[in-house]
Known about the structure:
Order of helices and strands: EEEEEEEE
Strand content: 35-45%
Helix content: under 10%
Radius of gyration: 13 Å
Number of strands: 8
Largest sheet: 5 strands, mixed, barrel
Structural class: mainly beta
Amino acid sequence: MVMEIPGVLAPFEAAANLSARQYYVVKISASQKVSLCGDGEAGTGILQNDPDLGQEASVMISGISPAVYGGSVAANDNLASDASGRLVVAAAGKNVIAIAIEAGAA
């Protein structure tokens, strides 16, 4: 069951074409633009829409959101971003971005 409980949604400008990246982990640059989060990076939130370059990107900064997994995940796993902005089980030294509510796989 996919669950969503919106907390804080924030609008930013997309720094790239993110039209195929809804529910991926994103980060916000110093210039307030959204791009995909990289491997183990500190993410800002989960992208809620599918913006093209320069369009408004809606980012859920807090709350419960659907997300795209990059591997097998169990409920209650600490999650980090992989190199493609998908959530995977957080390895040592990686920034924890979320906690899995549901088990799933890529």
